[in-house]
């Protein structure tokens, strides 16, 4: 994939945590708990030595080449990204707010024009016509 501008880079955050003690594991669970699942998606991937756990579990050295289970990992990489649906909903909301602001500005300008007309010609503008 060729990246030509900043917007081509997917918005993703990567955090690498140790994952050996129970405190480390509880911390990663708390990260999961505190994330708003409606706004963010997250995934945890195991990092660390793969050969020894693979031989112990599967009897072959290349069993965990693609994925290392969290319970066998030394570190955990937590990937956090904003859900696309949420981002699109925010953009729609902002567009609607911008449209509301433009409509209000147009109404305000029209009211100013009507007042100026009434002051200049000393008559009331009939809005029903």
SSE layout and pairing:
Blueprint lengths: L12 E6 L3 H13 L5 E8 L3 H8 L16 E8 L1 H38 L8
Antiparallel strand pairs: 1-3, 2-3
Determine the N-to-C terminus distance: 61 Å
Q: Catalogue the unreliable spans.
A: none
Q: Considering DSSP H and I runs of 4 or more, what fraction of the residues is helical?
A: 40-55%
Q: What coarse outline follows from CA principal-axis ratios?
A: rod-shaped
* C-alpha-based Rg, rounded: 29 Å
Question: Beta fraction of the residues?
Answer: 15-25%
Helix/strand-derived category reads alpha+beta
Strand count, sense and closure of the main sheet?
3 strands, antiparallel
Q: What count of structural domains?
A: 2
User: What is the string of helix and strand elements?
Assistant: EHEHEH
Oligomer: single chain
Give average pLDDT, whole number: 79
Count of individual helical segments: 3
In which order are the strands of the major sheet placed? 1-3-2
| Overall number of strands | 3
How would you explain this protein's 3D organization?
The structure is a single chain. The protein is 46% helix and 17% strand. With 129 residues, it is of the alpha+beta class.
Key traits:
129 residues, single chain, alpha+beta
Summed up, what is this model?
Helix content is 46%, strand content 17%.
């Amino acid at each position: 994939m060729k990246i030509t501008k900043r917007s081509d880079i997917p918005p993703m955050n990567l955090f690498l945590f140790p994952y050996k003690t129970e405190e480390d594991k509880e911390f990663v669970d708390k990260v999961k708990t505190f994330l708003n699942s409606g706004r963010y998606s997250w995934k945890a991937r195991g990092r660390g030595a793969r050969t020894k756990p693979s031989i112990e579990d599967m009897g072959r050295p290349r069993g965990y080449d693609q994925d290392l289970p969290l319970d066998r990992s030394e570190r955990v990489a937590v990937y956090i990204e904003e859900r696309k649906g949420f981002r699109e909903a925010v953009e729609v909301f902002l567009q609607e707010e911008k449209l509301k602001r433009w409509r209000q500005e147009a109404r305000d300008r029209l009211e100013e024009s009507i007042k100026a007309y009434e002051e200049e010609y000393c008559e009331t503008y009939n809005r029903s016509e």
